[in-house]
Every structure is written in structure tokens, then in C-alpha cells.
């Protein structure tokens, strides 16, 4: 899927498919790339997530832009909005959770971490991921924090699905989640803050890599 997506993305960005052009059908692409139609379908969803195409029922997939959106939108909130809010809310929340969590919160966080590590279905994993972050907010003991995360829950789920589909973030997220749970379980406020800071930094980095891969590569060469 990643190879098909990358090929189609480059073709659009090079102008081989102009804005307004219709992409070949799923059947035609499946034959061309010698992969199943389900693989093609996932690749086309990836193009839509990047803001490069739109799917019109009964008509096909059409190119809408020559490059991905600089600041993609998830459920009414931009990626930039989410990154800023999560930095200022979820990082201190992790610290409070380490100090105020109770046994029920710890049991649920451990359960969610284990389920995410074993889950193979992307949709189910995203739902667990949302619940994981809400549980941490609830463990902070401040209902306002929990309310904020609940408000952006749908946007977070959409962003998580985007990152998993286009950035392969799931395995790394599982490792980062486990570190957060360990710190909260141990009552280590600074470690919990550090673990959440690292997690959100990796989320932001993955978003940048997906949307502006050339810029990311240039930065790495400079470093």
C-alpha cells in the first residue's frame, strides 16, 4: 500500500495527473500494480487524507491539489491547533496523573496498553488510543482536563488514523504509551511529563514527515 501510495502521490505532484483529472479505476490500478483492490483502496484513502484527491460516489477519484495541505484538518481542527493544545494540556496532565491516579485508573491504563500492543485492526487500535488519552486526563483528577480531551476526541482519532495509515506510527506509539503508563504507575511525575513530551514530539515529527517529506529530508542532511 505504501509503495502504491508513494507512486501515485509523486505522479500527482509531478503533474502527471492535473487538478480535475480522474484517476484510473480501482480495477485498472489493481491490474497495473498487480495488487489486490483492497490495497488500492487503502492507497486512495491515503491520497484523500493528504488532501490530494476527493472520491465522488459512482464517479471515481479526482485530483484536487498538486501537493498535500501544509496544515491538514482533522474533524474541524487543524493539525497545528491539535499540536498546540496537546502540548499545553496533555503534558502537564500526565504529571498530575502520576500524582493523583487511583487503582482503577492504573488497571484501565495497563489493560489499554496491553490491548493496543496486541491489536491488529487499525480502527480498533485508534479507538483504544483515544480511550487511553482520555483515561490519563481522568486520572489527573481535574474534570476540566478530561472535558478538553473529550471535546477533541474525534479529531484525535482522525489524526491517529492518518498517522497510522501514512506514517506507520502504531508500533512506536505502543512503546511510547507503555513508557507513559510505567511512569504514571510509579508515581513519577517528571518521568510521566517527559514520556508524554516525547510521545507528542514524535507525533508532530511524523505529521511533518508525511506532509513535507522533502523538507524533513533536507533537515536531516543539515543535521
TrEMBL record:
Domain HTH gntR-type residues, every copy: 1-66
Key word Transport present: no
This protein's UniProt keywords: DNA-binding, Transcription, Transcription regulation
Gene3D superfamilies, sorted: GntR ligand-binding domain-like, Winged helix-like DNA-binding domain superfamily/Winged helix DNA-binding domain
SMART domains reported in the protein's UniProt record: FCD, HTH_GNTR
UniProt xrefs under SUPFAM superfamilies: GntR ligand-binding domain-like, Winged helix' DNA-binding domain
Protein name: FadR/GntR family transcriptional regulator
Species the sequence originates in: Amycolatopsis rhabdoformis
Amino acid at each position: 500500500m505504501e509503495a502504491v501510495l508513494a507512486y501515485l502521490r509523486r505522479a500527482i505532484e509531478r503533474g502527471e495527473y492535473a487538478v480535475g483529472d480522474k484517476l484510473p479505476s480501482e480495477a485498472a490500478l489493481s491490474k497495473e500494480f498487480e495488487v489486490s483492490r483492497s490495497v488500492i483502496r487503502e492507497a486512495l484513502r491515503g491520497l484523500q487524507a493528504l488532501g490530494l484527491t476527493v472520491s465522488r460516489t459512482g464517479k471515481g477519484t479526482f485530483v484536487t491539489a498538486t501537493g498535500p495541505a501544509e496544515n491538514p484538518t482533522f474533524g474541524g481542527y487543524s493539525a497545528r491547533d491539535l499540536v498546540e493544545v496537546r502540548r499545553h494540556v496533555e503534558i502537564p496532565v500526565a504529571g498530575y496523573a502520576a500524582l493523583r491516579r487511583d487503582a482503577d485508573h492504573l488497571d484501565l491504563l495497563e489493560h489499554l496498553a496491553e490491548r493496543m500492543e496486541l491489536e491488529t485492526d487499525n480502527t480498533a487500535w485508534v479507538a483504544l488510543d483515544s480511550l487511553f488519552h482520555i483515561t490519563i486526563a481522568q486520572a489527573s483528577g481535574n474534570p476540566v482536563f478530561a472535558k478538553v480531551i473529550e471535546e477533541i476526541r474525534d479529531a484525535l482519532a482522525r489524526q491517529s488514523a492518518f498517522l497510522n495509515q501514512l506514517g506507520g506510527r502504531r508500533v512506536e506509539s505502543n512503546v511510547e504509551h507503555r513508557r507513559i503508563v510505567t511512569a504514571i504507575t510509579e508515581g513519577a511525575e517528571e518521568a510521566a511529563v517527559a514520556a508524554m513530551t516525547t510521545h507528542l514530539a514524535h507525533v508532530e515529527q511524523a505529521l511533518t514527515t508525511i506532509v513535507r517529506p522533502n523538507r524533513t529530508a533536507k533537515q536531516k542532511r543539515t543535521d
